[in-house]
Write a structure and sequence with these properties.
8-stranded mixed sheet, about 270 residues, 8 strands, alpha/beta, Rossmann fold, 12 helices, binds (2S)-3,4-dihydro-2H-pyrrole-2-carboxylic acid, ProC C-terminal domain-like fold, binds NADPH dihydro-nicotinamide-adenine-dinucleotide phosphate
Length: about 270
């Protein structure tokens, strides 16, 4: 039986614990949670998922894995508090955007550390996660981390610097897609459909297009051209996207997010 301790009990911690319990890779009894001050939140997670609240400091010393899941701005205070509570045996997994293995090592000591960038679709076993390790992570720990992440979606190993790009693309990615859906729903109702109908049509369209890209050997532009009849509706729509600088908007979005990840690294 493992002991996995979450330091921070917000959205990402909930997505991960929910995914792991649902996918049967961890039991609720193996998961411990703590946060800064919000006791109601801990009680809610305890009652909803059956996970344990950390009510005995000895738990930290017995932990196989400590998961850092606070906001990057709170990380230094949290790590300073944590340092005296944990032993050298515990591995640390950080889901924090930006914060480097070097910084974590500085505050928590030279130990096995993995940086993971999951996304909130972990909740339903559909995360796209990136992972980078330091050289203290053993083969067994590495397999355990990969197994945990594969249980909640797909995982790809990258070098640590590339995690900034992973964060900008797939870490933040669900928010871009929800933002797109907000726009479809707003405009869909303007052109005569109900919000529910737009939701139904466009969630299926997003899922179908993603699945086509996964299954097909065609590049996205080839699949796009198969939809686009000369002089037809798609052509008119794509022309409007081009006139409104679609590519520039996406480029700015990803570059700004990547740059923010880098600046979070500097505190
Ligand atoms: N949300 C997302 O989609 C993703 C988030 N991430 C990363 O996950 C991390 C958490 O994000 P998210 O879950 O959205 O954040 P939330 O704001 O939802 O949760 C943050 C949690 O950290 C706790 N916390 C703050 N300070 C401390 C401390 N000193 N000791 C212990 N716990 C503390 C808070 O406790 P309290 O409420 O009591 O203050 C709260 O439970 C971030 O670093 C983010 O970069 C990564 C991938 C995706
Ligand atoms: O917005 C953020 O900073 C975090 C990291 C990726 C998703 N949410």
């Amino acid at each position: 039986m493992k002991k996995i301790v979450f330091i921070g009990a917000g959205s990402m911690a909930e997505a991960l614990m929910q995914g792991w319990i649902k996918q049967n890779v961890l039991t609720a009894q193996e998961i411990y949670i703590t946060n800064r001050s919000d006791k109601e939140r801990l009680q809610f997670l305890h009652e909803t998922y059956g996970v344990n609240k950390v009510d005995d400091p000895a738990i930290y010393q017995q932990a196989d894995v400590i998961i850092l899941a606070m906001k990057p701005k709170d990380a230094i205070v949290a790590m300073r508090e944590l340092k005296s509570k944990i032993t050298a045996q515990s591995a640390v997994v950080s889901v924090l955007a930006g914060v480097s293995i070097e910084t974590i090592t500085h505050f928590l000591g030279d130990r096995p550390i993995a940086r993971v960038m999951p996304n909130t679709s972990a909740t339903i076993g559909m995360s796209a996660s990136g992972i980078a390790f330091n050289d203290k992570v053993s083969a067994t720990q590495r397999s355990m981390f990969l197994e945990l992440l594969e249980a909640i979606g797909s995982v790809i190993e990258v070098n640590e610097d590339q995690l900034h790009a992973v964060t900008a693309l797939s870490g933040s990615g669900p928010a871009y897609i929800y933002y797109l859906m907000e726009a479809f729903e707003r405009v869909g109702t303007k052109v005569g459909l109900s919000k529910d109908t737009v939701r139904l049509l466009m969630t299926q369209t997003l899922a179908g297009s993603a699945e086509m890209l996964k299954q097909s050997t065609d590049e996205p532009d080839v699949l796009r051209k198969k939809v686009t009849s000369p002089g037809g509706t798609t052509e008119a729509g794509i022309q409007a996207l081009e006139q409104h600088h679609f590519h520039e908007a996406i480029e700015a979005c990803i570059k700004e997010a990547e740059a923010r990840s880098r600046s979070l690294a500097n505190g």
